[in-house]
Design goal:
By secondary structure, the chain is of the alpha+beta class. It is 27% helix and 33% strand. The protein has one domain (2-132). The chain has helices at 2-18, 71-91, and strands spanning 33-36, 42-52, 56-63, 96-102, 107-108, 111-116, 120-125, 134-135. Strand 2 (42-52) and strand 3 (56-63) form a beta hairpin. Mean pLDDT is 80; it is low at 2-19 and 131-140.
Length: 140
C-alpha cells in the first residue's frame, strides 16, 4: 500500500513539474526542469532569463535530444518552441529572443528573433542555414 502511495506521489510531482509555464524561471540548484509545450513535446529547460544586451532580450536555453547534423529537425524543434515562447516574449515586452538548444554532443546553436515595429517578429539568425556550432567548453 505504501509503495502505491509513494508512486502516486511521484507521478503527481512529475505532472506538476511538466505543467510549469514555458517562460517561468528554472529553480536554482537544478540542471534542468522538464516542461511540456502545447504540441506535447517535452523539453529539458536549463534557463529562462531576460537580460539587457544591446536590447532587452529573452534567452531560452534548453537541452535537445536532436543531433546537430540533423539541422532540419533541430530547426523544426525551435519553431515548435517559438510557438509557445512568443507569448512570453510579448508579455515581457522584449525586443529580441535567443533560443539556444544544446545538442546531445555538447554544442549549442543560437536562433535569434527580433521584434520590428513593436509587433512583427523577424528571424535573424539560425533559421535559414546551418550555423557554425560553438562548443560550450570554449573550444572550436
Amino acid at each position: 500500500m505504501s509503495v502505491v502511495l509513494l508512486l502516486s506521489s511521484l507521478v503527481l510531482c512529475l505532472a506538476e513539474q511538466r505543467s510549469t509555464s514555458i517562460g517561468a524561471p528554472v529553480p536554482a540548484g537544478v540542471d534542468f526542469e522538464l516542461r511540456e509545450l502545447t504540441s506535447g513535446r517535452a523539453l529539458k529547460v536549463r534557463s529562462v532569463d531576460v537580460k539587457t544586451l544591446q536590447r532587452l532580450t529573452l534567452i531560452f536555453d534548453y537541452l535537445s535530444d536532436i543531433e546537430l547534423d540533423d539541422y532540419e529537425s533541430l530547426q523544426r524543434e525551435v519553431e515548435d518552441v517559438w510557438k509557445d515562447l512568443r507569448a512570453v516574449a510579448e508579455e515581457r515586452n522584449v525586443e529580441s529572443v535567443f533560443i539556444v538548444p544544446e545538442t546531445s554532443d555538447g554544442t549549442s546553436v543560437g536562433f535569434t528573433l527580433r521584434r520590428r515595429d513593436g509587433q512583427r517578429w523577424e528571424r535573424r539568425s539560425g533559421f535559414a542555414f546551418p550555423p557554425q556550432p560553438r562548443s560550450l567548453s570554449g573550444e572550436p
